[in-house]
Please model this.
Amino acid sequence: MVINKINDYDVCKTFKEWLAKNEHRFYRKCKVCHYKTRGFLRIYFEDVTPEIFCSVNEWVGVVVGVRFRRKFWDLLCDFDCDIKRARNRKYYCSLCNEPLFYKTPQELLIDHSFEPLLEWVNSHFTSSHVLELKGGHGWTVATIIDLKGLTDKSPRSSNNSDDIMTIRIPVIKGEGQ
Model:
């Protein structure tokens, strides 16, 4: 997925401006490192396990993913936005079946990617959630599970007879251990 630069429009700059006004809405404090020459920024959340990363970049958009044992494991979610300009001179996301139109690409990106990221982070980065990693011969999967409804709430590492590894890591460091 490619986010097109329209009229020198900068996704990372837009995110930082939005974050400056909305940082207080995140339940966990965050820090941003902008890698300008590489065209992306990383968002680090206080007390969230380091295996989870959040990234905003010019060519992919907004993603939340997992790196485990120094290797990319899986994407937990992404908030894609393929910005196009319509004949009516308004902006829309070409990935949507029924697109909404915005006056500026920044408004579209905020509504389509940044606000959903905020909601997702606030609902998944809690002490009742664990990061579950599964892997086998050449495949890996990551999910975040809410332990409130589960009977087995303990973080665990296991290997079953099918050579499938399962690891649970508390999303909030130091919780549930």
About this structure: Residues 11-124 form one domain. The chain has a mean pLDDT of 87. Residues 102 and 113 are 14 Å apart (CA to CA).
